[in-house]
Amino acid sequence: MKNTILWILKLGLSGLLIWFLLDSVDADAVLERVQGMDMGIAAVGLALLIVQVGVTMVRWQVALRGIDGWLNHSDAFRYIYMGIFFSQTLPSSVGGDAVRMYKGYRRGLTLSQSINGVMLDRVATVLALAFLVAVMTPFIWNRTGDMALVLPFLAIALGGVAGLCLLMLLDRLPAALQKWRVVRGLGQLATDTRRLFLTPRYALPLLVVSVIGHINVSAAVYFFAKAMGLHGIGLADCIALFPPVLLLTTIPISVAGWGVREAAMVAAFAFIGVADADAFSLSLIFGVAVVVSSLPGGLIFLLSNDRNIKELPSAPVSDPQSGA
Q: Are the beta carbons of 84 and 294 closer than 8 angstroms?
């Protein structure tokens, strides 16, 4: 019942944001952009979103290797695709990350590896975003000519680094708190964070793959913009502006990021003079394309032997096989 109410609230927020934006933009202009799309160019963007599944698979595998976990390419690809499908298409309380954790655990990962591997994969994407934002800051400044607009991007970069440092210190909490299982779990996460990000042979490939992933998704947005005739949006614009938008959609306050993504896109691309209706249309097309690209994950799930998605079993977060 609680999960149902939570999902209804998320659906309500998504609907409210989209309704507000539709009421604020020129609906005729939105319809014109969508109807006038060049489907050939849009297909390139869709193909890049499918490629992103492979990029995400490699990123997750590197994160697992850094904490002594391993999944073969076939299993990792299938679990990633299932997770994407669940995240994008089903009105369920089961998130894509939970699917990955559950499937990884069933495949032989320890409980700490299955949970922390996914969490550190997410941390890597945020850290790569911080790096990318820092690199693109001069471009944003040159593109907008307003230092005030650069400050939020610098805050993202600094916040990413500060968050990583904080994560590494979670096992330094007072000993009196160690009786709580969640605190012990945070301690294991801190240990795994240091093992992964302070070991160059894992940290560097992980960050490189994560940056490639951000650029790849941004390139997909660029091709959708070209397909819609938005020639004022360049590839560098998408690389600079879209990853922070994507970061906001990971906050679990809406259904698959709908509504939040549209509002963030309108705000972000307004920095470079893109009309609200155009940015809104671009976000809608991107959202639909993500759903379409996730559909093979549903087929993979239906063809799998284990179609039960349950909560992770109760077990100590720090177990003998985890290496802790």
A: yes
Cβ within 8 Å of residue 129, ≥6 positions away = 156, 160, 210, 214, 243, 244, 247
Cβ neighbours of 47 (radius 10 Å): 13
Give the list of residues 6+ apart from residue 290 with CB closer than 8 angstroms, or none. 49, 88
pLDDT digits (tens, 9 = 90+) for 111-144: 989 999 999 999 999 889 888 888 887 887 777 7
224 domain-assigned: yes
Residue type, 246: L
Number of structural domains the chain divides into: 1
Report how far apart, in Å, the C-alpha atoms of 322 and of each of 92, 117, 166, 178, 185 are: 31, 11, 22, 18, 12
Radius of gyration of the chain (CA): 20
Whether residue 320 lies inside any domain: the answer is no
Give the separation between CA 88 and CA 213, rounded to whole angstroms: 18
Please report, for residues 28, 58, 163, 249, the alpha-carbon distance to residue 75 in angstroms, rounded to integers and kept in the order given.
45, 12, 30, 26
Task: Give domain status of residue 314, yes or no.
Answer: no
73-106 pLDDT, tens digit per residue, is: 999 999 999 999 988 876 554 578 888 999 999 8
Per-10-residue mean pLDDT, the chain, length 324: 68 73 68 83 96 96 94 94 84 71 91 91 89 82 71 74 79 67 76 90 95 96 94 91 83 78 88 88 92 92 74 40 37
Q: Would you state the structure tokens that stand for residue 262, as one six-digit string?
A: 């549209």
| CA atoms of 62 and 102, how far apart (whole Å) | 18
Which residue from 107, 92, 105 is spatially nearest to 11, judged by alpha carbons? 92
Q: What's the whole-model pTM score?
A: 0.83
* Nearest CA among 281, 235, 221 for reference residue 36: 281
Q: Report the alpha-carbon distance of residue 277 to residue 76 in Å, rounded.
A: 38
**Non-local CB neighbours of 40 within 8 Å, separated by 6+ positions:** 227
**Residue 43 included in any domain:** yes
Residue 246 domain boundaries: 32-308
